[in-house]
Design goal:
Blueprint lengths: L3 H14 L7 H9 L4 H9 L9 H9 L5 H37 L1 H17 L32 H10 L9 H4 L14
């Protein structure tokens, strides 16, 4: 371990300039963990004897006690030191999220499935107040697996939508203008060829 006076000088340099050659991230973390508590500071400030009679740790703490707001400054130095690594991690997550949003936004097949689900819901609820819906909550899509066929109990409405979306009438590869409704008053219909 470095002599207490060198560590104090390195901490003063870190507080003044934001950088220190002697204090890397690991040493800075260890220094923050070893800072004197309020009781220890009270005992050290009451000490009136020669500094040389104290141990190295006590000499270091006595030297650091004269710096105002040292804990906050060291916490800021730790944050500045780890900012680059944290920022690159956040940047990777943000890029992944942006790519996922672009995939959802540009997916023609998802748009087709949503329109088919809306049309089927309106058809099944025809005559009720829910039969002319202009939209639905996404969690409603989970109900597609609950509606079963009357002839084959293993086939659900979700199977039907998937089969139609990938079947011979699939229009997912067409431009979006072809998928949108041809009738402005009925926005829930999907234009199938």
């Amino acid at each position: 371990m470095a002599p207490p006076l060198q560590v104090c000088a390195a901490v003063r340099e870190l507080v003044a300039t934001g950088r220190s050659k002697m204090l890397d991230d690991e040493r800075l973390d260890n220094l923050v963990k070893c800072l004197a508590t309020a009781d220890e500071r009270k005992l050290l400030s009451a000490y009136a004897g020669p500094r040389e009679a104290l141990g190295a740790a006590e000499q270091l703490m006595l030297g650091l006690m004269g710096m105002p707001a040292l804990e906050e400054r060291l916490a800021c130095a730790r944050l500045v030191g780890s900012f680059g690594a944290r920022m690159s991690g956040v940047r990777r997550v943000a890029e992944t999220l942006d790519a996922a949003c672009s995939e959802v936004r540009d997916s023609r097949l998802l748009l087709l499935i949503l329109k088919m689900a809306l049309s089927l819901g309106n058809f099944l609820n025809a005559g009720a107040h829910q039969g002319s819906a202009l939209g639905f909550h996404l969690d409603t899509l989970l109900k597609l697996k609950d509606v079963r066929s009357t002839t084959n109990k293993h086939v659900t409405l979700m199977h039907f939508v998937a089969r139609c979306a990938r079947g011979p009438f699939c229009i997912a590869s067409r431009p979006i203008s072809c998928i949108s409704s041809s009738n402005s008053s009925d926005r829930s219909r999907v234009c199938l060829p």
